[in-house]
Amino acid sequence: MGALKRLDGTSVSEGSSADTERLALYEKFGAMAYGVILQIIPQPELAQQILVDLFASPEMDQCLKAPTSLACNIIRLARTKALEANRIATTANPLPAEPQQPENDNTEKLIFDLSFRQGYALGAIAERLQMPYADVMKSIRDYFKYLRTS
Fold it and tell me: How would DSSP label each residue in 90-119?
């Protein structure tokens, strides 16, 4: 058997432990990371490219060495990569010009969406929705509680 070929055309020996480790990580956490990326970038082709970039990136080595949970680190990195790709794809991505004051149940979901999926700072969300910063934080906490019970 010969050498495996990477996407960039370079060859890798089949016994490379780093590549074997990344493949194992992909098999274990790939679906989870892809789900996170799809929440931010709902285009499957672009999401798949980001997923490949995620597991091929040098930042993945830092995830392995970090003292925190590997799954959490991969989620954070997937989110970061997806938000970065989203910013590149859309040069200017302002908050909606005239945000509608949704029902209270939907406010928590809107704030979570703006923060997690679109990457806006909590201060910017509070200012735009004309809410105190503490209420924005409470909305996110309440939304997490709702997600845990659903």
Answer: SS--PPPSS-----HHHHHHHHHIIIIIT-
Residue 17 counted as domain residue = yes
96 within a domain of the structure (yes/no): no
Same domain flag for 50 and 109: no
Residue 121, SS3 per DSSP: coil
pTM of the shown model:
0.63
Where in the sequence is the domain holding 72, given as residue range(s)? 4-89
45 and 79 housed in the same domain: yes
Same domain, residue pair 43 and 81: yes
Q: Tokens 């995620």 map to which residue?
A: 54
Q: Which two tokens stand for residue 101?
A: 């004051």
Return d(Cα 14, Cα 120) in angstroms, integer.
42
Nearest to 53 by CA among 18, 22, 17: 22
Query: Between the CA of residue 146 and those of 22, 55, 71, 149, what are the distances in Å?
Result: 34, 31, 21, 5
Q: Which residues pair with 5 in a beta bridge?
A: 11
The predicted-structure confidence for 93-149, as pLDDT tens digits, reads as follows: 454 544 444 445 688 888 888 888 788 888 889 998 999 999 998 988 888 888 788
